[in-house]
Amino acid sequence: MSRPRGNHRARRDDIALGAAAVISERGLEQITLRDIAASLGVTTGVITHYFPSKQALLRHTKNLAFDRSFARARAAAEGPPGIARVYAVVEAVLPLDQERRTLWRLLVAFFGSAVGSAALRRAQEQRMGRWYDLFTQVVAALHATGELSPSADPARVGKAIALFVEGLAIHVVMTAPGTSAEWQREFACENVRRLVAG
């Protein structure tokens, strides 16, 4: 980590990305601050300077993973109107490169830990609500371009696309890690087109 001194937020994010890489390989259960520090080439003291506890680091790491993915999707949602915009948002979310695959594996690890935690489930519901809202917005815009039937419910179609993308991403990172970015794009576009067409 060679960030300039004083760039506290950036250093926290560097540590969180290092933690994400370790968690995506080893899972949440056995991971320690020492493991994360070793992977970053720093001492545990450096980590605890930025995070008071392992839980604080894990929380920040999960939030960072979601926020980065959502920011990419939100930026894609500002693109040209029509079905191409929907495809762009979907593509922004898919695990097309190593960083995104790492972040998706991290999110999958947290999904498992949410099973026994009402607080984590509520946080997950809120995050999914943001995805549903974003996809609903881009789908609703298809009414204006005539690419969505006037009788179609944008919220229903948007939620279906969000759930499809999440399922595809989980499949890729957990059971088919060799899946190419090109295949993901083609498969996603084909199925999103079907969902939009009803």
Textual characterization of the structure:
- It contains 10 helices and no strands.
- The chain has a domain at 63-197: Tetracycline Repressor, domain 2, CATH 1.10.357.
- By secondary structure, it is mainly α.
- The mean pLDDT is 90.
- The chain has helices at residues 8-26, 33-40, 44-50, 54-76, 83-93, 98-113, 118-140, 142-145, 154-175, 181-197.
Task: Pick out its properties.
10 helices; single chain; mainly alpha; 198 residues; elongated; Tetracycline Repressor, domain 2
In short:
The chain is mainly alpha-helical. The protein has 10 helices and no strands.
Beta-strand content bin: under 5%
Report the total helices.
10
CATH architecture of one domain: Orthogonal Bundle
Could you state the order of secondary-structure elements as H and E? HHHHHHHHHH
| pLDDT < 50 runs, ≥5 residues | none
Mean pLDDT: 90
The residue fraction in helices comes out at: over 70%
In the CATH hierarchy, the third-tier topology of one domain is known as Tetracycline Repressor, domain 2
